Amino acid sequence: MTEVGKARKRKEDRRLLTGRTQWTDNLRQPGMLHVMFLRSPMAHARITRVDVSAARDLPGVVAAFGGQDFAAEQGSLPCAWPVSEDIVIPDHPPMAVSEVRYVGEAVACVVATDHYLAADALEAIEVDYEPLPAVLDMNEALAPDSPKVHEAGNQAFTVKITSGDVEAAFRDAPVVIDRTYIQQRLIPSAMEPRAVLAGTDGDSFTLWSSTQIPHVLRVMLAVVTGIPEHKIRVIAPDVGGGFGSKLQVTAEEVLCLLLTRRLGKPVKWTESRSEGNLTVHHGRDQIQHLRLAAEADGRIRGLQVELLADMGAYLMLVTPGIPMLGASMFNGIYKMDAYEFGCTGVFTTKMPTDAYRGAGRPEATYAIERVMDELAAELRLDPMEVRRRNWIKHEEFPYTTISGLTYDSGNYEAATDRAMALFGYDKLRAEQADRRDRGDPVQLGIGVSTFTEMCGLAPSRMLGAANYGAGGWEHGSVRMLPTGKVEVITGTSPHGQGHVTAWSQITADALGVPFEDITVLHGDTAIAHKGMDTYGSRSLTVGGIAVLKACDKVKDKARKLASHLLECSPDDLEFAEGVFTVKGTDSQKTIQELAYAAFTAHDLPEGVEARLDSDATFDPENYSFPHGTHLCAVEVDTETGMAKIRSYVAVDDVGTVVNPLIVEGQIHGGIAQGVAQALYEEAVYDSEGNLLTTTMADYLLPTAMDLPDFVTDRTETPATSNPLGAKGVGEAGTIASTPAVVNAIVDALRPRGIHDIQMPCTPERIWRALR
Ligand code: MCN
């Protein structure tokens, strides 16, 4: 059996599970200092005075600074995705100098010999604020008389995309569904909070950070601070999850670098959970207005989408691009004649939003899958039937959608049939009818989500066309060591996804070396010198393929050497399971023998270097389009409003699977996050712009106890855009699950005249809707 496809346990887990890890906060450096940031208690205010002198005098304090002290050197935090020509990208100083625009923005800092001394000394800093009005509601922010977040106004950008004749689609349409949904603001909650350690030898700088993007960060730190790129090394040591929240160039990273330059000593910062809730970039936060026109038989004519997307106070690394990642996804897996997408990015005095698992695609999928259920209800059709009448049929692939993407492959029928069988769809519908007839206080709802997503970010030319500031290629290197062992170096930066294991499987098959003989290095710009890092479920379909391509080049070199040593033509050699054999003979060389021969270099042919190492860059032709059918059964207690998931079936199609165990883990984690949005999580600001959900007691993260058993299965429709046939999986569960859960709740309540419940669907909200 090949390694690809094997449910290998993860190589990285023994170390992680036995505490032999290198979290950034565990790192120690001689003479290391600790920095803590004083954060604005006001959502919006002018800073009229910052006095750090009393803090400077406290025991253990080495230095204290206000924003003015950094004004000349701190630059502006970058936004790499200007989605329109006239987008407003306000200056974003890492430490506020003259104005604060959200609660939590850094206004001063203390550097001390100890983390707690630094924290205590923050209390001695005096800051005077002149309050300005908070701007919290997107609709109000766009009113002409609204107070302004930035001088240039509260509109960051507005974009419109049209395809087909929208007016014709809606003219005399037999059915028009018109709905507004709110994507509540979410707070990414990685297990490991953010942490940064910056050090210098006087000339060069090393920054350890709990980041997803060491390579992007290095470039950006050079651009922001003016420190030459070759003098900066960024290391992402073990990183305990990110979910998009560590796809960022943060104020703390820049400020730690500036502090180590100024003080000549290593400086570390680790956030507390409350500090993290306030200042890690938030996710979602959109108001979505959808209008869908359909024929009387349920066939969709056209779709109009109008979004308001809350940017928060500034545009961070990819803030404006997040709603745009959903722009081509509202049409989902469905065929239609016309589509219009409009989006306005709005500034408010809240923490900026940015990528959070799925980033734009969960929002789009939620909206279309909710609306499909509304269409079914309007036409008194089964929700699955409406979908069947509209989805792209398996024989129609490759299919170019109304929003202009070409879905390379898929089989929605197969995944749906499998999911319905596992779920016992018809039986559950019968039970639902029975409970309705009996007037059972506990009603049953069935939620359907037939989704696709675009991931595997991405073809560089497509990112360029979307005005994104970087490419989407990935890099991989393979080093054959003299003893025949293998080092793989990847530009991806795993933080929970198991790349060490998966890349070992790919390499083992490609080179015919044992899985155990392979090690994978990553996350250090001095070792993995090229890379675009990990996000957008891109690592396998871009980075894994780069490793595969590098293996191919190693084999080409080895073949040349083998033909020389075996005195035959390269074409006369067969390669299988790590051995080159002269066809029709038993004359052989193993790839390990060839690695050693290359190392000794005693007898190399012309043009062959003294190594079999190779590297490759892969830039795919297209995105990756995983899909699947998720079904959820929810019991809703109409007396208490409690909604409890009874069963959940997910049949996903991620093309060829490298490691089924990892894929299942990704789906599980993803579903948990999607269910969390449907039922539990919400960032809440009060009317003055104070975040109320700053602790785990207020921000309700579900635990394993709150989640049902998931039944998962797969269909495999290979991708055509990469040689493995793989599609991304890292975000699929999150994208698919939220609408499945909410559709189920609404389905249970529909006979009571309810057609929406605002997320998170808390017992209180359901109870109120019932009354
Ligand atoms: N895989 C596979 N076969 C496939 C597809 C994927 O075996 N057909 C494996 C890959 O080899 C890889 C893993 O599944 O080991 C995820 O691959 P991929 O879909 O390429 O996603 P990335 O590795 O690029 O991970 C990013 C993705 C994103 S965008 C978020 S957000 C997310 C996620 O991964 N954040 C995570 N999963 C996470 N898991 C953990 N533990 N922590 C996070 O922060």
Judged by helices, strands and strand pairing, the structural class is: alpha+beta
Percent of residues in β-strands: 15-25%
Unique ligands: pterin cytosine dinucleotide
Report helical residue fraction: 25-40%
Question: How many runs of DSSP E, i.e. beta strands?
Answer: 28
Strand arrangement in the largest pleated sheet:
3-5-1-12-9-10-11
- Summed up, the helix count is 20
Taking all residues together, what is the mean pLDDT? 97
Rg result = 27 Å
Major sheet attributes? 7 strands, mixed
Shape: globular
> What is the distance, rounded to the nearest whole angstrom, between the alpha carbons of the first and last residues?
59 Å
Which regions are unreliable across 5 or more consecutive residues at pLDDT < 50? none
Account of the 3D structure:
The protein has 771 residues and is an alpha+beta fold. Helix content is 28%, strand content 24%. It has 20 helices and 28 strands. The strands form seven sheets. The protein has a seven-stranded mixed beta sheet. β14, α9 and β15 form a beta-alpha-beta unit. α10 packs parallel to α19. The longest helix has 27 residues. The radius of gyration is 27 Å and the shape is globular. Pterin cytosine dinucleotide binds next to α15, α16 and α18.
